[in-house]
């Protein structure tokens, strides 16, 4: 292992500032909360601004397909900022997971993804684990004519998608098909995290286009990149929770003192700071490791094992340390709590990532 | 009075008031008048002045006879907090006026204590009560009021003298919730529901005869109320009652979702829940011999921690199902079941367990200072006139 | 389950006061520390005072054998006090474990145990788990003439014993033999906890007396009672650690304030108080459950699972919160730390007790 | 100076001082005089005033050439704490007198800061230094002094003016440890060893020329020393270095002792250790670009927590073997290896990690106040003359 650069490059700093400016202006937390009551007007507007106006949809698309040809490092910066704002946009599902799955395909969809013309979702449950067996990755079957039949539940990004990328299983080969979303049954799910609302997908003998005939490696790679970069979203969620809590406790007075001056809270916040810094570090490290193609699986497992729980802890501390106000709907803390808890389950829990890590670093479990 | 004499009283009462043929309200009022409502209360106020320990037997006999109850869950604040405070601090007229309809459930009570700026620091309330002849005129905002929309009366703490230090300028009132100056707005929580309310008071008039305790004594009276809240450590719990039971059932029902790490975490929490249950049992046995002390704070602390960890674990155990929620629609639930609805609701609702009724941070202070005798926090707000404090 | 009485009876209160008075007078912590440097003079003196003068050796021995005929409840009170003083005496090993193993035997040893005339140790490793297979419970074999051969390592109480009670394995039956300690090879072990120093036992074809031919139930019962009552010792260790730490922090001044007034420490001590109270409760509950013969295995598993880790935590907090002085040899905190850590491993770790509990309360592990 | 020029200097030096044929001490003194000792120090004091980042390359070239080193582990306090403080606050004469034999290892240093009554609160030191003509006479007791029995000199903080508030009455000295008034007693720790000492000072005479910084400036000088201690976050660590490596090897070697719960706990700690390693790497990259800040405190905090949890787990993993200890005999170890000896030693020794060099509680205060900007603790001892403070 060489020492990867864990500090942001100038390009990454600029990218962060641009994304943050846009989110500060266009992603008010009250509008985010409105998605819980069915008002999803923010979603399309914000995604258009990010994907088309800023061109983030094509961040990972190679330049020859009209994309920015950036690496996982830059995508991690975007996700960190999206996490900080609990932005309800399908960047992770379309610009990261679906895009990564298509990278080896040379398919025309890549070009459409690059322009933001088309948003894509790969149909796996959000909770899919990275080492899930093929039959869990792909519950849909394709007949000889390329007609797809099956059902996939709890798919993230499908509500925002134009095209579904459907892993199918056939004998023991995993293939990838593209289906226009209008032809699939897409049933919205009342989700714990409505800022990444899920949908159940039903495919009922739909004609589809084969994108990759031997797609298992591409699909697994897409999930691993998704999991690795989700860690940056989690670090963003956690960092924002820490910041807003510290800021609130510097203002809030009880017992004639600023509440943030009570030592028990100071020590908890100090511990949380240490955790957030570590979360940032392992998230950046995973993105850098994948970009450099160096030991990415270990770095991903570490990042997910660490950040999944840390983000939940940070959001829980934010709710608790805001006192009663943090329990109210009008305060945004709950948006972060729900995102953090759903993110913890997304791509497998921390425990699942630790179990995966055991195999990667030779810490075997109990002998059977 | 021996327990047998008490049993005789119940039998006599039931002989003259057949639960099957007597109107419910009439039955309850008669039971109150017979001193068989809360038997530890004095005669004339629903009781017989006998030890609290005898209450359970009386209740059991009434249940056995098929008697209607006073629906205690609908008036928890009234029965648990208002009544003992009125008994301790009320005038004879107040006791006579309020206790009976409170016990029968004809008048539901709520609590107007917390304010946006006075949560853990209750003595910081800013709601003002200004004397106007024989009455007080009250203006301010209260929060975290459960049942305000159903309540006929409220226990209220307001500031009557801002020139006094914060703890000395408070007075305690019994407030008519049907006053036109009262506005109740539902307060939506992170679960989507509005279990609590905000209450806005605008020129609410309270007759001085509804002041409880002396003017300026509000802090002392309010503390009596809050002690009743905090020492409540519940009834004998069976093993696997509450959140641990729910999650253990989920575990048994979902063999395919089990992992070794979830197993050990569940077992740790099972042990913690069982330890808390046994500790509660031991504490109750102790309390039966003497006065409630601050030790109950540790029980509430444990309850909150365990419920939060368990409900968090349940979502991880459920995996994909944990990503789904029942319904975000804003409703006003008539009652609250911490372990009800779905796993997502349990997870979110449990977050309140460490805030409501004394935050876990305040409880730790109480244990450290009142049980362990460690020094109190340095305070700068105790001797300064309230109006001069930085808010 | 009925509600067991979890409060001390008057008899138990008197017993506690008597034991405590004796320990305060005769178990100075400096003398306890001396056992680490090989000065074990306290051990014999203190054990004689407790076993003979107070008659505690026969606490669990039935009256018909000259004992006090007391129950596990009273023995728990004694162990709580012994834990509070890290007393280096073989009460647990002789008066609890060995005595319990003999209860069904009607053997003359019971009478000698009752008078304190004879101290006995059952030869199992202190770390033995309650559901260990028979071959681990008994690594010694007996030939037809009752001659024992084998080796048992890390046996507690053997250094103080007059007689060893040796579980032997033969075909698949577990028997129990008695051997005078002089005839066995007893090799002292440099132990993590020298206040319960271990020994390795070698039996080299020694003639022994058969005490119980079918002893597995008796041995397992002895271990369960030992584990259940060890919880009281652990609660005593934890309680004393909390008390001395609180007392120290009320005196110690730094930064112009009593250190115990710093809120971060207050909150830790509050949490520790809650833990210690729970430890006491589950320890008493286990002793009461065994005395009443009601659901004792679950109560034992809960008590061990809770108290083992709590006592270690309390001792660790004591060391930490005493600051530098807690790290020194001259301060007694280390005696409690070493006892707590060794107790955690004794009769299996908390994890082992949780695993056992899973089977008892129908919380099955992952399906094979 | 470019790195190539620097390489040239090293090559020139090695050309004239063959490591194989030059006497070790002569070689080290010459290296110092050539400015190739600590290259960031000024010319004339062992350096060339070049960026600290170039040190690693110089050291590498000397190692490559087979040159003797100055045995830095034997003089950690001297090199890490005394030297930078002398450089920052010393007179020219002091720098000329002390830095060279310090660097070559001819004079070993120790630290006389902590006292029984002044641990975390270093400004509370009671050791008195009273002026007597051109010298100071020092009386008092110091503690936690590692290497005192081998040291020639000590950095010492003593109280010179008890009429001043506690932070203002301190002065910093360079103290000759061979003074007849110095008594060094081994301080035995819970491991059985005596890694540290107590030092008793009885009428120790220190010439005023060995005062470092102004009279009354001792707190400021001492803080400069301590900052050097706390920001030290070590070199690039390899994965599985330190305690995690030891315990992971135990895991691999003891398949029969594995349980599912130990497995998950080990994996959690492996993740924590890896996260700490990566966080340290990121912090070092940041520091290479700028000034060390209080962020390093979080690293020390994590290091202590992880080492303690791991070493505790290792004993549980070992089971019966964890009940055995190597040796309680009181010895004075020449060097300390946190991960050395046996598992019991590791467990006990790790308890010190959260105390020595700033307790974890103090580190949390530092993070809360200096990184997060939260209010400082209320203090009552800052403006009162030291002699009037309650001790």
Automatic annotation (TrEMBL), chains A, C:
List the source organism. Answer: Nocardioides antri
Would you tell me the protein name for this molecule? Acyl-CoA dehydrogenase
> Cofactor(s) for this protein?
FAD
Give the family this protein belongs to, as stated in its UniProt record.
Belongs to the acyl-CoA dehydrogenase family.
Question: Which GO molecular function, any one, fits this protein according to its record?
Answer: flavin adenine dinucleotide binding
Provide the Acyl-CoA dehydrogenase/oxidase N-terminal domain boundaries: 10-95
What UniProt keywords apply to this chain's record, in alphabetical order?
A: FAD, Flavoprotein, Oxidoreductase
Q: Which InterPro entries match?
A: AcylCo_DH-like_C (IPR036250), AcylCo_DH/oxidase_C (IPR009075), AcylCoA_DH/ox_N (IPR013786), AcylCoA_DH/ox_N_sf (IPR037069), AcylCoA_DH/oxidase_NM_dom_sf (IPR009100)
TrEMBL record, chains B, D:
This protein's record includes keyword Flavoprotein: yes
Gene Ontology MF, one: oxidoreductase activity, acting on the CH-CH group of donors
GO cellular component terms, A-Z:
plasma membrane
Acyl-CoA oxidase/dehydrogenase middle domain span: 110-204
Q: Does the keyword Glycosyltransferase apply?
A: no
Q: Gene3D superfamilies given for it?
A: Acyl-CoA dehydrogenase/oxidase, N-terminal domain, Butyryl-CoA Dehydrogenase, subunit A, domain 2, Butyryl-CoA Dehydrogenase, subunit A, domain 3
Keywords (A to Z) from UniProt = FAD, Flavoprotein, Oxidoreductase
SUPFAM superfamilies listed in its UniProt record: Acyl-CoA dehydrogenase C-terminal domain-like, Acyl-CoA dehydrogenase NM domain-like
Specify the signal sequence span.
Answer: none
Question: Which coenzyme or cofactor does it need?
Answer: FAD
Question: Ranges for the Acyl-CoA dehydrogenase/oxidase C-terminal domain?
Answer: 216-372
Positions of the Acyl-CoA dehydrogenase/oxidase N-terminal domain: 10-106
By sequence similarity, the record places it as follows:
Belongs to the acyl-CoA dehydrogenase family.
This protein is called what? Acyl-CoA dehydrogenase
Organism of derivation: Nocardioides antri
């Amino acid at each position: 292992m060489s020492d990867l650069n864990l500090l942001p490059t100038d390009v990454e700093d600029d990218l962060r500032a641009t994304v943050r400016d846009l989110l500060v202006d266009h992603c008010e937390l009250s509008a985010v909360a409105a998605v819980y009551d069915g008002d999803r007007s923010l979603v399309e507007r914000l995604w258009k601004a990010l994907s088309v106006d800023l061109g983030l949809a094509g961040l990972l698309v190679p330049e020859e397909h009209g994309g920015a040809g950036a690496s996982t490092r830059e995508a991690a910066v975007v996700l960190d900022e999206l996490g900080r704002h609990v932005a309800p946009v399908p960047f992770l599902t379309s610009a990261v997971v679906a895009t990564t799955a298509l990278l080896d395909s040379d398919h025309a969809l890549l070009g459409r993804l690059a322009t933001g013309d088309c948003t894509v979702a790969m149909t796996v449950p959000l909770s899919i684990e990275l080492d899930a067996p093929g039959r869990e990755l792909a519950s849909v079957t394709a007949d000889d004519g390329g007609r797809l039949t099956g059902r996939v539940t709890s798919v993230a990004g499908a509500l925002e998608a134009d095209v579904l990328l459907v892993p199918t299983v056939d004998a023991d080969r995993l293939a990838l098909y593209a289906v226009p979303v209008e032809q699939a049954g897409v049933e919205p799910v009342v989700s714990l995290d409505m800022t990444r609302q899920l949908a159940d997908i039903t495919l009922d003998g739909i004609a589809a286009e084969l994108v990759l005939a031997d797609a298992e490696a591409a699909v697994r790679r897409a999930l691993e990149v998704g999991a690795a970069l989700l860690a940056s979203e989690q670090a963003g969620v956690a960092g924002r929770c820490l910041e807003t809590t510290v800021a609130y406790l510097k203002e809030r007075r009880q017992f004639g003192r600023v509440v943030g001056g009570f030592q028990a809270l100071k020590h908890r916040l100090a511990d949380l700071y240490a955790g957030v810094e570590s979360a940032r570090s392992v998230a950046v490290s995973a993105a850098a490791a994948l970009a450099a193609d160096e030991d990415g699986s270990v770095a991903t497992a570490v990042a997910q094992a660490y950040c999944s729980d840390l983000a939940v802890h940070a959001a829980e501390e934010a709710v608790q340390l805001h006192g009663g106000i943090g329990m109210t709907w009008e305060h945004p803390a709950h948006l972060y709590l729900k995102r953090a808890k759903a993110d913890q389950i997304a791509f497998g829990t921390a425990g699942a990532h630790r179990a995966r890590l055991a195999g990667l670093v030779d810490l075997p479990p109990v002998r059977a | 009075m021996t327990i047998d004499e008490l049993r005789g009283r119940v039998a006599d009462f039931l002989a003259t008031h057949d639960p099957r043929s007597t109107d419910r309200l009439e039955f309850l009022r008669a039971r109150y008048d017979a001193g068989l409502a809360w038997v530890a209360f004095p005669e004339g106020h629903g009781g017989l002045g006998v030890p609290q320990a005898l209450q359970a037997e009386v209740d059991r006999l009434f249940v056995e006879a098929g008697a209607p109850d006073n629906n205690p869950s609908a008036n928890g604040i009234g029965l648990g907090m208002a009544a003992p405070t009125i008994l301790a601090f009320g005038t004879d007229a107040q006791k006579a006026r309020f206790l009976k309809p409170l016990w029968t459930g004809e008048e539901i009570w709520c609590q107007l204590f917390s304010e946006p700026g006075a949560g853990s620091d209750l003595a910081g309330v800013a709601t003002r009560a200004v004397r106007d002849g024989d009455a007080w005129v009250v203006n301010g905002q209260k929060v975290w009021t459960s049942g305000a929309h159903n309540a006929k009366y409220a226990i209220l703490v307001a500031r009557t003298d801002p020139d006094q230090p914060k703890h000395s300028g408070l007075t305690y009132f019994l407030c008519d919730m049907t006053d036109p100056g009262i506005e109740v707005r539902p307060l939506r929580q992170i679960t989507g529901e509005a279990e609590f309310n905000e209450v806005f008071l605008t020129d609410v008039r309270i007759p001085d005869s509804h002041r409880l305790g002396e003017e300026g004594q509000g802090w002392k009276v309010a503390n009596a109320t809050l002690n009743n809240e905090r020492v409540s450590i519940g009834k004998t719990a069976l093993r696997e009652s509450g959140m641990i039971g729910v999650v253990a059932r989920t575990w048994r029902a979902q063999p395919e979702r089990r992992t070794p790490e979830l197993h050990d975490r569940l077992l740790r929490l099972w042990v913690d829940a069982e330890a808390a249950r046994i500790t509660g049992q031991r504490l109750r046995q102790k309390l039966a011999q003497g006065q409630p002390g601050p030790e109950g704070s540790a029980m509430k602390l444990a309850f909150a921690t365990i419920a939060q960890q368990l409900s968090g674990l349940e979502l991880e155990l459920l995996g994909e199902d944990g990503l789904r929620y029942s319904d975000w629609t804003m409703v006003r639930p008539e009652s609250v079941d911490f372990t009800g609805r779905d796993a997502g609701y349990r997870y979110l609702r449990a977050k309140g367990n460490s805030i409501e009724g004394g935050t876990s941070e305040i409880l730790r202070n109480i244990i450290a200072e009142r049980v362990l005798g460690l020094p109190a926090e340095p305070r700068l707000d105790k001797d300064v006139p309230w109006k001069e404090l930085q808010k």
